[in-house]
Amino acid sequence: xxxxxxxxxxxxxxxxxxxxxxxxxxxxxxxxxxxxxxxxxxxxxxxxxxxxxxxxxxxxxxxxxxxxxxxxxxxxxxxxxxxxxxxxxxxxxxxxxxxxxxxxxxxxxxxxxxxxxxxxxxxxxxxxxxxxxxxxxxxxxxxxxxxxxxxxxxxxxxxxxxxxxxxxxxxxxxxxxxxxxxxxxxxxxxxxxxxxxxxxxxxxxxxxxxxxxxxxxxxxxxxxxxxxxxxxxxxxxxxxxxxxxxxxxxxxxxxx
Length: 256
Prior knowledge:
Blueprint: E1 2-8, H1 12-24, H2 38-51, E2 61-70, H3 71-77, E3 84-87, H4 104-107, H5 110-144, H6 149-164, E4 173-181, H7 182-192, H8 199-215, H9 242-252
Antiparallel strand pairs: 1-2, 2-4, 3-4
Helix pairs in contact: 1-2, 5-6, 7-8
């Protein structure tokens, strides 16, 4: 897995502080940023966190490049609907020797790993075979309809792989560009940094948090699972490791 913070709102914390200042002070748009020293900016952002006033942090957005994650993860992360996604298409991009994500629990058991790798090879074989059969059929149909063979082959390729992809596994590797504002990210971290989150999306959330904390530490001071800044919301399902989790996220943020 690889996470790159591609771009973000310039001076994100000052942008958020400006929005907060406008809410609580008799300021004009032309002067709202005046006097916002780093200290005052940090104070405004901290005040918002203490008050639970989250809407101003929506004025800071962050765009990530994400690689080496599975299609299973894609199904989870797109449930966070206040976000923008651009994902590599299996409809337009042929999966030649597709990369895949191996769950750690499978990798740790040689017998399970051998079966898993065998299944991946079989999926590739079925994908290639189905795509070849369909491509041949589509070329023949298009040529019979009067299209020249070169043009028919290009169209047939796309039509073939968009159906052949149905045999590809959830483990199949994908790439995406993802943009979220800070409020959506905070919600994402609350849910996906939790010990009860699925392992792959938790790893992704931790890596994303480490990246945004570098550029907006005051906004994301309390970011992480809910237990980092308050009580665990999981009730009987709690992992019971609140203190360990708090220490882990202090280290992740470089504060210990």
